[in-house]
Amino acid sequence: MSDSISVGGGGFMYSPVEGWGSGPTGHELGLVSAVVTDSKDRVYIFNRAPETAVLIFDRDGNFLDSWGEDIFVSPHSIWIDADDLLYLTDTGDHTLRRCTTDGSVQQTWGIPGRTGAPGAPFNRPTWAMTAPSGALYVTDGYGQSRVHKFAQSGDLLLSWGEEGSGPGQFKLPHAVWVDRNERVYVVDRENNRIQIFDSEGVYLDEWRGFQRPQGIFVDANDIVYVAEARPGVKILTLSGEVLAEWGDAGDLPGQFRQFPHSIWADSHGDLYVGEVTGHGLFQKFARIHA
Predict the structure, then answer these.
(1) Which residue(s) pair with 90 in the sheet?
(2) Comparing C-alpha atoms, which of 81, 90, 43, 85 is closest to residue 272?
């Protein structure tokens, strides 16, 4: 941890942890598409390049394991539920998979290598998560401007969205989060906003003031963390009030090379931010507690 560098603001100050996550040869962190932590604070990184795999580290950055090298084509997002089941989207083969933490595939949505019918799942899906009710939401994504909602059984319940910049329209729905009240937050990247819907896809509100938002995470205290491609990180309340933000382009600890793509907080409040750039970068930011 760097004692001389801190980022953030107010009650959300962090210190970058230099050198975190140096995997062995063949398992280096490169183009990091997404990151989550499990109930034991193990860190799961969806690595797109140079190795297409899920890389697993402990919270100190020690490499533990990897899997998925023969499963995924173009990793995009990873999300984990309360039972430590992982949901992973693959924009390269138009699928969403649910896997155990040791890499066993439990269920696959979509047909590998084949796009769905127009408006139907999937055409390069970007993100997925389950709501407190058990419903599954998927943003879809690079190939079309849709959000899909599935029942716990896996059946498609509804879809909404179309190309555009009006309410309920999207220009690259890039990520999704569902809060404890079943409100659905859709990161509408190229429209520089986050739109908010009810569980039936009815538009409620939107937050502006972002510069190409990419990833979203909401913690147990209803604090919202957003990774932006400006580049930077923004921390907000569920009412949209900005609590802290930082971001500078560069190669120094705490800076970002180009495109923060995903963000997650562990049980200690430490943040993990992955970037998708030509050279790649992954950083851990340790929460500074007063």
Answers:
(1) 75, 95
(2) 43
Q: Is 182 exposed, middle or buried (0-12, 13-18, 19+ CB in 10 A)?
A: middle
Convert the pLDDT of each residue in 201-247 to its tens digit.
999 999 999 999 999 999 999 999 999 999 999 999 999 999 999 99
pTM: 0.95
Nearest CA among 250, 262, 265, 259 for reference residue 231: 259
Q: Could you tell me how far CA 9 lies from the centroid of its own chain? A: 23
Amino acid at 284: K
